Amino acid sequence: MKTDVLIIGGGLSGLHTAYSLHRDTSPDTGTHVTLIEARNRLGGRILSRSGPNSDGSAYDLGPTWFWPGQHRMEALVRTLELEREIFEQPSAGEALYENDSGAVLRGLGGASMAGSYRLDGGLAKIIRALAEQLPDDTVQLRTRATHITQHGDRLHTTIHRDGHDSIINSARIVIALPPRLAVNSISLSPDLPTQARDLLQHTATWMAGSAKLVALYDEPFWRKDGLSGDAISYRGPLGEIHDASPRTNGPAALFGFVSVPPDIRRNQEDALKEAALAQLEKLFGHQAAHPRDVYVKDWAFDNLTATAADQEPQITHPAPWSGAAPEISWEGRLMWSGSETAEGGLRNTGYLEGALEASERTVHQLAKDGVGSAPS
Ligand SMILES: Cc1cc2nc3c(=O)[nH]c(=O)nc-3n(C[C@H](O)[C@H](O)[C@H](O)COP(=O)(O)OP(=O)(O)OC[C@H]3O[C@@H](n4cnc5c(N)ncnc54)[C@H](O)[C@@H]3O)c2cc1C
Fold it and tell me: Is the model's pTM score more than 0.90?
């Protein structure tokens, strides 16, 4: 199969790149874009799980928030006519603090995510809205890139689908996945110089080692007790807890980031749920012990997000990307995209806003090179 631009990865970044190229390309230039995605769904780290009723409620098991001033996210939500779904993270009431010996204190401070934006019905609404605008033949799900070979000015990507390998021949490749994951799972011929591989390997994937637990309840009972649903715990197993209730329909919810390290929580989902519910009961009262349902997503063991290196705790936010060196781009034909390649700094690199920044940079470069949209 032949295409002009092959996008590897159907997370926010890759999907936005496909959407932008399709939107900006005039039918006369006829740039052909193909996006391959290894999972059987689009969205990557964006994952919204539907609630138990058919009421449109959904609970984010990957990213939850974007922030005022993240102008790309704000603009995209407006363009996709989803702005009515934006609401502020519920934050009225007191937060709780659990120290490492288990003592619970309240009234020490406000909600850490007050003012953050959420999307009612989950962030996957953005993914669905972007995908709906693409021509039917753009996206290939369950299709994994395994190898890329340079052949003069063309690139040959070996893809694996339904147990078979085949080749996609393209002029450009957009690698819209975390650089560390790419360098660990897609082999390149010619191989990258050691220094370039090291740079990619050391670009940590934001939140890849994390796990999230969401507990669904008939009502947000903690609010009656003057609590916001926020808690910080140095005891665990949930280290940071927030209200995850939808704005409109659907069961109320609390969610927590799991603070137990990946090597200890591996294959321990039942024990983790039990310990998390005991902790929620201790913090928020006996109703917390009886959720309607509990959803868990452990990203650390999802090999389409995390690598072995991501099992290490990540304590600092990712540094802005500085990897656009010629030796890793094969004279510009191999384009490193994805949120971890954003250069915009804090609250960009590794975040949803960074996925859009990287996509914007990639689309602009393709236009400059005369591939894709017209230069602006
Ligand atoms: C638990 C958690 C909480 C987070 N919270 C927030 C938050 O509140 N706010 C925020 O801004 N950000 C948050 N983030 C980060 C945010 O999710 C990411 O910045 C963003 O989703 C990255 O998008 P991306 O397209 O760059 O990468 P990804 O979403 O990782 O997409 C990469 C895609 O490539 C696919 N893929 C992988 N390998 C291959 C292959 N070989 N062939 C084909 N396809 C492949 C994957 O399946 C995936 O779909 C959070 C992340 C997690 C995990």
Answer: yes
- What letters, b where the CB count within 10 A reaches 16 and e where it falls short, cover 271-302? ebbebbbebbebbbeebbeebeebbbbbbbee
Residues 230 and 277 placed together within one structural domain of the fold? yes
| pLDDT digits 0-9 by tens, 42-76 | 999 999 999 999 899 999 999 999 999 999 999 99
Ligand 1 lined by 138 (C-beta under 6 Å): no
Same domain, 130 and 6: yes
Q: Could you say which of 315, 338, 367 is where a domain stops?
A: 315
Which domain covers residue 141, as residue numbers? 1-46+124-205+317-376
Contact 209 CB / ligand 1 (< 6 Å): no
CA–CA gap between residue 335 and residue 9 (Å, rounded): 12
> What integer pLDDT is reported at residue 326 of this predicted model?
64
Question: Is residue 156 helix, strand or coil?
Answer: strand
Give the residue, out of 12, 20, 45, with the most ligand 1 atoms within 8 A of its beta carbon, to mutate for a pocket test.
Answer: 45
Instruction: Please tell me whether residues 41 and 148 are part of one structural domain.
Output: yes
Read off the CATH number of the domain in which 338 is found: 3.50.50.60
Domain endpoint, select from 287, 315, 343: 315
Ranges in the chain, pLDDT < 50 = 373-376
Check whether the bond before 190 is cis (ω within 30° of 0).
yes
Question: Could you tell me the distance, in angstroms and rounded to a whole number, from the CA of residue 119 to the centre of ligand 1?
Answer: 17
Per-residue pLDDT of 220-259, as tens digits, reads 999 999 999 999 999 999 999 999 999 988 999 999 999 9
Cβ of 8 less than 6 Å from ligand 1? yes
> Residue 360 C-alpha to ligand 1 middle, in angstroms?
16
Overall number of domains in the chain: 2
Instruction: Give the mutation target among 72, 177, 310 for probing the ligand 1 site: most ligand atoms within 8 A of CB.
Output: 177
For ligand 1, atom 35, the nearest C-alpha belongs to 9
**Residues 3, 140: one domain?**
yes
Q: Is 207's C-beta closer than 6 angstroms to any atom of ligand 1? A: yes
Q: Are residues 261 and 287 in the same domain?
A: yes
Dist. CA 185–CA 202, nearest whole Å: 15
